[in-house]
Description:
This protein is an alpha/beta fold. It has four domains: 17-163 and 230-400, Alpha-Beta Barrel (TIM Barrel), CATH 3.20.20.80; 168-209, no CATH class; 409-621, 3-Layer(aba) Sandwich (Rossmann fold), CATH 3.40.50.880; 633-713, Golgi alpha-mannosidase II (Immunoglobulin-like), CATH 2.60.40. Helix 2 (35-44) runs parallel beside helix 4 and helix 9 runs antiparallel to helix 15.
Amino acid sequence: MTTKRGTMGRNRVDHILFGAAYYDEYLTMKGIDRIDEDMRMMKDAGLNVIRIAESTWSTCEPQPGVFDFSHVDRALDAAHRAGISVIVGTPTYAVPSWLVKLDPNVIAVTPNGQGKYGARQIMNIVNPAYRFYGERVIRKLIAHVADHPAVIGYQVDNETKYYDSVSNDMQRLFVKYLREKFHGDLGELNRHFGLDYWSNRIDSWEDFPDVTATINESLGGEFDKFRRDQVRQFLQWQSDIVREYAHDDQFITHNFDFEWRGYSYGVQPAVDHFKAATAVDITGVDIYHPTEDDLTGKEIAFGGDMTRSTKDGQNYLVLETEAQGQHGWLPFPGQLRLQAYSHLASGADMVEYWHWHSIHNSFETYWKGLLSHDLEPNPTYREAGVFGREIARPEVGGRLVHLKKRNKVAIMVSNESLTALDWFLIEAGFPFGGTLKYNDVVRNVYDALFELNVECDFIPSDASAERLGKYEMIVAPALYCAPQETTDRLREFVSNGGHLVATMRSFVADDEVTVWHDRAPHNLTDVFGMTYSQFTRPKNVPVEFAGPLAGVRPVEAKSLIELLDAADGTEVLASYGHYAWKGYAAITRHAFGKGDAEWIATLLDADAIREVLREAVDHAGIAGAGTGLAGTLTVRQGVNTKGETVTYLLNYSAEPVVAASPVAGEVVVAPEAIGRSGELDEAANAGIALKAGSRVAEGDKLEIGPWNLAVIVG
C-alpha cells in the first residue's frame, strides 16, 4: 500500500488525520530497529500520519555542513510503504552544540543573564548566525524531502516564542523599529510613553538604554509587542523558504501553544496568534490538559476555539496532544476516545499525539507516548485504535471532517492587555502584590460560557467592524488596552443591535498603555450608561444581585471592585452590600441604539459569573440547542460539508447521564464501553441502547455513560 497526496491541498486536508510524532533516531541509537513494526502497529490502530524531524537538527547535521538524512529517509520510506502520510518539521527549535561553539551569541540573553547550552528553545531568533545556519538546514532538508510522495505538509519550527530574549541584536532591532515608528522624533517617543517620569527621558538615539530593567510599561509593553512580531516574522521567514520547495498540494503549518500552568491554560503571552498565523497555510496547535478525574473538556475547547479563530473559522490541526502524558495524565478507560472526539468537536481536522513511543533517555523520559517504554501494546494504544478505526469509516470520518462553526458569541482578547496587566496587576497596580492575571479573567468568562453550552469564537482587539458584525454578543474580559478604533467599533456594534459584556479593567488605556484621560470607560460611558473614577481591593464586600438576577445568592467580590455610578435609565443588576460602598453599582446594563451593554465591575466566583452570563445570554436571545443541558452534558455543534448539523454530546464525568436529546438525527458515533484492556467491552456494549446508525427524535431520552459521548448528525 502506498500513500496518495493528490487530494490534499495547501489550505485544507481531505480527511481526518490521526497520528503521532515519530522519532526513529531515538530508537536506533539504543540499537532498536523496529520501524516497520511501528508502522504496522500504527496502521492496525488507524493512525494515518506521523510528524518527523522537528527535534533533531544535530542528527540531520552532526557537523557544520555535513548532512545526514538517513533517519528522515527511513521514516519517509517506511511510512510510504505502510500508506501513512508524513509532516516534516524544520529542526530549528533545538540548536546543535557545534553551532553554539561556533557562535555563542546564538543563545539568547534573558533578564536572568546569558543562557547556557542544553535545553531547547534557548536561541535568539533574530541572531544572524542562527538565521544563517537555520536557513541552510531548512533548505537542505526540504529540498531533500519535498518530492517524496509521503509528504503532505511541513511544520515550521516548534512552539515558537521570543524566549524572553533581550540580546543586543534584539534590542538594536527594537531601537530601529522605534526610530521608524516615530519617524526619528525622540520628542514624540518621550511624549507617547511618558518618559519624563523618573528621569527616563531619552534625548539621543545613541543613548538609548537597555530596556531590561525599564520601569515604564509603555516602553516595556512596546518591547514585548515588538518581540511578538519578531515571532511572526520568524515564522514567515521559515515559511517563505519552505514554500520555495513545497508542492502546491503540501501545506505549511505551525504548532502554537498557550500560557502554561502545568497544562494549556490561556492566551499565549509571547505570541500574538492572530498575527503569527498569517505565516502559515493551516494553523496548528498543541493542547495539553488535565485528565483522569480532572478532565473537563475546557482546555480542549479553549485551545480549539482560539486556534480556529486565528483564521476566522478555518479548520485547524492538533499537532500535539497527550496520550499517556506526564504523571497524573494516564487516561481512564474511555477518556482517550472522548478526548479525541472533543478536538473534532471544536473543528480540528487532525489529532496527533506527542508522541508514538516513550523515550528512554533525557528530560522527557516520563512524558509518555502511546507506547510505554516496553514498546508493546497497552490500553492507551488499544483505545487509540478504537477511535482510529471509527473515524476511518467514511460514514463517520467523512461526516465529521471540516466541521464549521456558526457561533453567535465572541470573546475579544488582546496580548497588549495581557502584558499591561502583568505590569499593573489587577489587585495591586504594580508588578507585585497580587496573583490575579489577565488569563484568569479570560478563563473566568470562557469557562462559564463553556459550562452553559454557549460556544464562542475569539476575536482580536483590532478586529474589523465587519468581523464584529458576525456576532450577536461580544464579551471583553479585562480589555485593558483598547485603542480608539476598538472603542469606536464596539460603539457601532452595540448601536447596530449587538450585546456587549465587559468586565473590570477594560478600556483603560490605548495600545501604547497610556491611560485615557477622560471619564472611564473611555469613549463608552454613554454606551454602558455608567462611569467610575475609583476602585479598590475588596475586603468583606458582598455582591448583592437585583432585577433579573435577584435569585442569585450574594457572593464576595474578589480581587478588585470598581465603584460604578449608574446613569438614569441604566439597569442595576447588582450592587455592593457594604456600609461604605452601598451606593455603588457592581453590574449594570444599559440600552444604546438597537443594542445594550453590560458591565461587570468585579471578579465573581465560578457559580456567580455563570449565572450572570446565563442571564446575559437569555437577555440577548441567543440560547442554543445545548443550553438546556448545561450542567448535564457538554454540547458542541457545527455544520459538515453536506450542510448537516453535527451535534456532539460529551459526558465529562464518572457517572452515566440520562438526558433528552436536544436535536433529531442519525447517531453517527454511539457511546462505547471501553474495558481496562483499552478494547471495546462487547458484553457491556450489548446493554447500551443507543447504537450507531439509529435515529433519534428531539426529546428522546439518551443515556451516555461515564467518560463517553454520542454524535448526532441531521
